Amino acid sequence: MSGNGHNLTPGVRMMEEETELERVENMKSDKQGTDGQKRYRERFGRHADEFRWLYMELYDNGSMFAELCDHMERFYAERKADLKSADLEREAHKDWYKQNHMLGMMFYIDNFAGNMQGVKSRLDYIEKCNVNYIHLMPFLDTTEGRSDGGYAVSDFRKVQEKLGTMEDLEDLTDACHKREIYVCMDFVMNHTSEDHEWARRARRGEGEYMSRYFFYDSDEIPGQYEKTVPQVFPTTAPGNFTWLPDAGHYVMTTFYPYQWDLNYRNPRVFNEMMYNFLYLANRGIDIIRIDAVPYIWKELHTSCRNLKQVHTIVRMMRMISEIVCPGVLLLGEVVMEPEKVVPYFGTVEKPECHMLYNVTTMATTWHTVATRDVRLLKKQLDIVNSLPKEYIFLNYLRCHDDIGWGLDYGTLLAEGMEERSHKQYLNDYFQGYAGASNSRGELYNADPVTGDARFCGTTASMCGIEKAGSEQGTGGAERAGDGQETGGAERAGGNQTAGAMEKAIRLDIMLHAYMFMQSGIPVLYSGDEIGQINDYTYKEDPGKAADSRYLHRGRMDWTLAEKIWDSSTVAGKLFQGLSQLEQLRKREKVFASNADAWTVETGERAVLCMGRYLEGVKVLGLFNFSEYDKEVVLSQADGPYVDMLSGEERELIPIVIPAYGFYYLKKK
Ligand code: GLC
How far away, in angstroms, is 445 Cα from ligand 1 center? Predict the structure, then answer.
């Protein structure tokens, strides 16, 4: 076989004997090339039977399978040497991403640093944040004003002009790798933009391209789908189909009308999207976030979510990446209830995603903030802790999306909390209308029919930093940057509002401390490390005004970031508070994902206790979700313990946890 990747034999022949010509060519090629081909064949051989079987089961199309195999080999041949050696190293250390040194941060390139080159020039800051994994929010070509924050891709091989070029991307991933920073990007595979070439050709009536989407010339079938398919954006984009007057057809649009659902029944769609996936992986991407993956297979009379074919596709993706680029991880975006999320890990023998978002834990965390009652969270953590340690969750407090209140309502009902009224309470609470709330934020996609609504806001605003800042007479949200700078409790001299700011900061740091204590990979939402508050300016932009998620997608405030070492500022307090925890997490192996993790009953509703154990080291974390000091007596009090932050020894019977405070305790 040729080593240059352009003169390829069909992949299905990889298992067969080499031809005489190929053998001579191989002998001529350097040793690395020969080893590489051998390695490729080994990898392919490991998966060949299952891969072919699954593909044929789904598509029953041998020539398309052969084409896919051919292209895979070409992408392997084209993969750069440094990426291939990273693949090898990661294959040899399969648990490389399960260690306690991992800390992620996600950001929009333009908000964070203008463009790709700007991000490169900010890598020092990223390192200062103790971050070694960056998630670059969607950066592929899209149409301004019809982009859903970049989640409507019009070209999978082109970077948005304002952000840079593919060369800039490779330059950035290269620079990151030199600093041992991993790079994550979104692979938006459920749909394309209506401006994607396929969509444009489909709109013009080219049958080949229409068959890559779901086109209907009457409302009969769309109407049948609507009976069983729920709505993702009931207010901002009602319905699951869009009528195209120029084409005289309906097209399926689960998300926005300009995001056309791809038809994965068509093997051409699957193959081409896999080529896009491998093309992007070869640009130096380490983690591929498979966007909206539960939606990718559609079937009449179903909810069109989590169908079994979705799992076949994800399993094939996993095999494709293990064959071509085994250093690349798949991160599934499955924003669903726990029993729907976990199957996306596959099984230990037949894995699908490497990592998944810990979405229910995230939503339950904010429920706990609003109720000061840790019982549901404890139960949720017990579920997660009981899963195999191979399953890696991505833990987070906030991300670019809204918070959908996906809680365990069965359990809450037993406590007298009914779903609809509880969601209403949470939304009221976080808007600052109900309970002892200092939060600020806005609703998202409030559905007048179901009464359902989701919530938007930054961590800092939800913790009370925005409100405390505005109460100090600094002019509210628009000028809260000033408020934040003057918001240090000491400076304000013990008055009530300074107390409010102090409390808000404590809550914010406590929530991060609790998040860092969980197994998995913690991911910060950019700006949270300096306490950035909601940005209301999106309302002035007609392209954004209808989508309140832009409330928490503000521009990085670099003047605030200059204050990170000034501990009299809010930004400084937060940054340093988090930094101490992040460094501790990186130092102590007990935070690795293979540690035992459990929760402990504290007898106090507002206090959560989490335990971790690895190789003779035991730690307990105590987290007070209330604004009052709380005393607890732990039944597991096998002290003495040492406070991991202050180094002081602490007896556990009893122990007082200050309002919104926490302890990390290590058994002596
Ligand atoms: C994912 C993204 C979200 C986007 C949607 C449609 O859920 O996180 O921001 O709107 O996919 O692509």
Answer: 14
